[in-house]
Amino acid sequence: MRFRLTAPLRQFMLTMLLAVLAVLVVPVAGATEAEVTSAKLESTEEGYRISASFSFELSRGLVDAIAKEIPLSFTTEVELTRPRWYWFDEKTIRSIQTVRIAYNPWTRNYTGTINNGLQQNFATLEDALALVLRPRRWIVAEKGSLTPGAVYNVAVKLKLDLSYLPKTFLITSLNDSDWRFSSDWKRFTFKAEDK
Q1: What does the pLDDT look like over 171-189, one tens digit per residue?
Q2: Nearest to 78 by CA among 96, 51, 90
Q3: 3-state DSSP assignment of residue 132
């Protein structure tokens, strides 16, 4: 028994293929850009803390999405690697912090939630976005997790995290340049404290 494709089935499969290609091949030129304006790693009694600040402006589409009660999640990623001359760099530590910004029309307040934990209310969107632009310093490595005296490559990046969007909205956002929001990696070196 041979399987034959009928004309309507062929048409449907071609349409689906073109739709998938359209999503995958959309140019990134219209993407909203963010910039890591500063980043440094600090040694404290509790461990190694990242201090960073970012610069960006939300597009009209993203501001409208928040106003329509679609929360946006911004993820800051930090990676520490130790270079090795004899092999690939050793990926030592990866840490992320996600800030979720939402609007509540009943209270007319914006909320900022850090890693699904600490939640704060703000009167304006600009005040809420301060949690993203100047995130609190958080521990990315415990005190004894870095080799004393070793030099580490540190990379910091900010992105709009689409994985937190409602699934029904995710398909639409993939085809809209407003939703492709990310910074380049900011890279620097850090020497771990000697004991």
Answers
A1: 555 556 667 788 999 999 9
A2: 96
A3: helix
Q: Is residue 60 part of a domain?
A: yes
Q: Are 41 and 190 in contact (CB under 8 A)?
A: yes
* 53 within domain boundaries: yes
Place of tokens 């990866």: 94
- 82 is in which domain, residue-wise? 38-191
Report the domain count for the chain: 1
CA distance 187 to 78: 10
- Give backbone dihedrals phi and psi of 137, rounded to 5 degrees, phi first: -70, 130
pLDDT digits (tens, 9 = 90+) for 23-42: 444 433 344 588 999 999 99
Q: Is 76 exposed, middle or buried (0-12, 13-18, 19+ CB in 10 A)?
A: buried
Q: Going by DSSP bridges, is the β-strand pair 109-114/90-104 parallel, antiparallel, or unpaired?
A: antiparallel
| The residue type at 148 | P
Separation of alpha carbons 66 and 86, rounded Å: 49
